Amino acid sequence: MRASVSWVGEYVDLPAGATPREVGDALVRVGLEVERVDSAAEGMSGPIVVGRVLSYSDEPQKNGKTIRWCTAEVGEPEPRGIVCGAHNFAVDDLVVVALPGSVLPGGFEISARKTYGHVSDGMICSVRELGIGDDHAGILVLPSDAAQPGDDALEVLGLRDAVLDIAVTPDRGYCLAVRGLAREAAAAFDAPLHDLTESVTLPPVDGAAYDVRVDDPGGCDQFSVRAVAGLRADAVSPEWMQQRLRQSGMRPISLAVDVTNYVMLETGQPLHAYDRSKISGPLGVRRARAGERLSTLDGAQHVLDPGDIVVTDDSGPIGLAGVMGGESTEIGPDTAEVVLEAAHWDATSISRTVRRHKLPSEAAKRFERGVDPAVAAVALQRCVDLLVEHGGATAVEGFTVVGEGPAPVEIAIAASRPGAVAGLPIDAASVVSRLTQVGCAVSSPDGDAPLRVVPPSWRPDLTDPADLVEEVVRLEGYDKIPSILPTPPPGRGLTDEQHARRTVSRALGAAGYTEVLSSVFVAPSVHDAFGLPADDPRRHAARLVNPLSEAEPELRTSLLPGLLATLRRNVGRGMRDLALFEMGLVYLPRPDAKPAPIPSVEHRPSDDEIAAMYAAVPPQPRHVAVVLAGEVERPGWWGEGRTASWADAVQAARIIAEADRTELTVRSADHAPWHPGRCAELLLRGDAGDTVVGYAGELHPRVIAALELPPRTAAMELDLDAFAAPAPAEAPDISPFPPVLLDLALVVPADVPAATLLDAVRDGAGELLESVRLFDVFTDADRLGADRKSLAFALRFRAPDRTLTGDEAAAARDAAVARAAERCGAELRA
Predict the structure, then answer these.
(1) Counting CB atoms within 10 angstroms of each CB, which of 114, 296, 541, 688 has the fewest?
(2) What is the mean pLDDT of residues 369-375?
(3) Phi/psi at 634 (5° precision)
């Protein structure tokens, strides 16, 4: 909302000497968002004065252009000679003259210069050159009685009047009017308010202005009509009205249209003017019928929806209610009789119509936020008075009002509540005073009974006690609210799951991985690129009804598509060595789930509807995944580097398990999109047996080719929700006695997993074994035999209470060998 400070000052006694900036700051203090305080004179300086054209002569030029050599009186002893290219002025016209030394918007400096054979001693200005409009076709001609030659043109045009530019929030629709801004200024300065409604005399309602029929009282609870006749065709809007419209961001059009726009800005009540000669039959209000069409004032054709409210006559729809009028009854240059409408429309219906037809308007902006139904009669009377005064019209007898408008509501609120909420000492008298300033009617019963508050008609947003608390506190001053940090109650910190996720994230980050966040939306083609079987559950993805992109309409069932897309994008930008990880939700719809019901917006969903909606929500486990490509160890003088492999992906899973203080079992598997011979299945040991929680390894070559990934790209994905919250960490027992270090090489069949052999060694070695680590894998058909391999382990033995002897350590090692032989058919390598 843009409005000049002088316009606001007509309805409130602003403090003497208050600058426009101080007015803006005061409005900010009471909760308005004042974006800036503009002056149309900014960027202009020097002598810009009113001039009177004394004479001119038209002089054709060789280039085909005809210029005017003019003399103009500018309040100096001698007239000035000026060259002008426009021809829309005459002798004795008042114009705006920028004299040498002045500066116009855009840094355009004016000086005396020779042109077309004359010395032009200034410039006669157009609207565009003054920065107050876009019309560049002709010179700005002032009314003959507007000023005298030599007067300050910026003052005459009102350009030195500052303009408030306010971003009005949806709950403060009343501030889309000068009347509302004046009320806020009165509260901010504690100054007297001169409400427009106090100075307008209203005629009695008799229904004689024009016949009206409202068939949809739910969409329009009040429809008011006045009429005028005898409007002069040559009547134009006064300059002060045009100036205020321009300051508010509107373009002057014609007297009838300008008056309705001006009154809308003044009162907040949108109005519409009909050419009475173009209306056939009574005005009606109803919902549109399917297939009906309407041509609006912007020339567009609209196919109406049954949810649209329309204004009709006997010919059908003639206006889209609360949004835009129709072409068929448009005010024209020959309009002499005008029917003026001021209605109160259902805000929700107007909002839906605007979005349905993509047709925002100044009127709709106000109806969506709530318009004061009590101001309609005042707005109509103001329109009639202005048309009579400036257009020579005659007010038609009669005033038609159909509908009572919304009924007022009463809110009960304890007088102590605003102070308790804000933490401020606000007594009951201050609460009553502040609510009265807002416009509420307040009754204060005796004793401790709550206040009974009836909000004003222009505040439909005040519906609950909390709304009244906000009004009291904002007028008391948000800056008075003390800054006190709340004391957090004990036991309200991070949950065990949150701690576990942060621990995993830190562990992967410390291991050299970079966390990324990728989109949850995927294309169905990714399942084919991954080589997933037709019956793979990951293919059954939840599909969005209204996706952001038709190319990616499904929710991810794995983190790998997004991670691999990020990897490919970074490789394409020159990054060769990458280790990325992501933690996030995946979405696994139930095959037997029914679609969620779409609840009505008219009332709260029933318990059964809510239960059905929750039942349709897919399970959303939290996964963690990593991808690797390039070198994990770069080559240098210290030796050769090492390229990322499937083993690094498996190690990432072990890092996660260690951070969760648990242990994973690893065994070979065949699972898309991994390479069958380089894929590990990750299992979590539990009371009910081992559970598969993820996979790791090198991606299949076909997947790498389909997604254009670097060769030998490795990946891992785990179900984090399958891990229990880690138990509290226990301090290890530290023995002061030295360890005994032994190596053990066992030969087993090639199909025996290393993890199985390691478990057997650990079980057989007993309590003296402190740690065991696989450090070598060796295969040689000539020395070990076909389909045999040698696994070498480093064993560390230690006793907590004594120094182990060699015999004790050897006995534990032999027990480990025996257990390995029993479980895995292992033999001690010679």
Answers:
(1) 688
(2) 93
(3) -80, 145
Candidates 438, 456, 444, 441; CA nearest to 415 is 444
Q: For residues 23 and 13, give the distance between their C-alpha atoms in angstroms, rounded to a whole number.
A: 12
Measure the CA–CA gap between 61 and 58, rounded to whole angstroms. Answer: 10
Task: Quote the CA–CA distance of 363 and 334 in Å, as a whole number.
Answer: 25
418 within 8 A of 431, measured Cβ to Cβ: yes
Mean pLDDT, rounded, for 8-17: 90
Q: Does residue 491 register a pLDDT over 80?
A: no
52 CB-near residues (< 8 Å, 6+ apart): 72, 73, 92, 93, 94, 95, 149
pLDDT at 591 over 80: no
What pLDDT, on the 0 to 100 scale, is given for residue 718?
Answer: 96
Mean pLDDT of 700-724: 94
Residue 694 pairs with which residues in a beta bridge?
Answer: 682, 718
Residue 465 structure tokens:
């006690």
- The answer to whether the CB of 559 falls within 8 A of the CB of 582 is yes
Dist. CA 611–CA 346, nearest whole Å: 32
652 pLDDT tier (thresholds 50, 70, 90) = very high
Amino acid at 819: R
Whether the pLDDT of residue 263 is over 70: the answer is yes
**Tens of pLDDT along 47-61?**
999 999 999 999 998
**Is the pLDDT score of 492 beyond 90?**
no
Give me the pLDDT at residue 331, please. Answer: 92
**pLDDT of 134 above 70:** no
Which residues have CB under 8 Å from 744's CB, separation 6+?
Answer: 761, 792, 793, 795, 813, 816, 817, 828
pLDDT of residue 357: 93
Question: What pLDDT is stored for residue 708 in this prediction?
Answer: 93
DSSP result, 73-111 = E-SSSS-EEEEE------TT-EEEEE-TT-EETTTEE--
Residue 146's identity, in one-letter code, is: A
Whether the Cβ atoms of residue 437 and residue 187 lie closer than 8 Å to each other: yes
Q: Is 829 exposed, middle or buried (0-12, 13-18, 19+ CB in 10 A)?
A: middle
Main-chain dihedrals φ then ψ at residue 674, nearest 5 degrees? -90, 160
Angstrom CA distances, 96 to 99, 720, 730, stand at 10, 76, 88
Q: What is the rounded CA–CA span in Å between residue 48 and residue 374?
A: 45
pTM of the complete model beyond 0.70: no
Residue 684, helix vs strand vs coil: strand
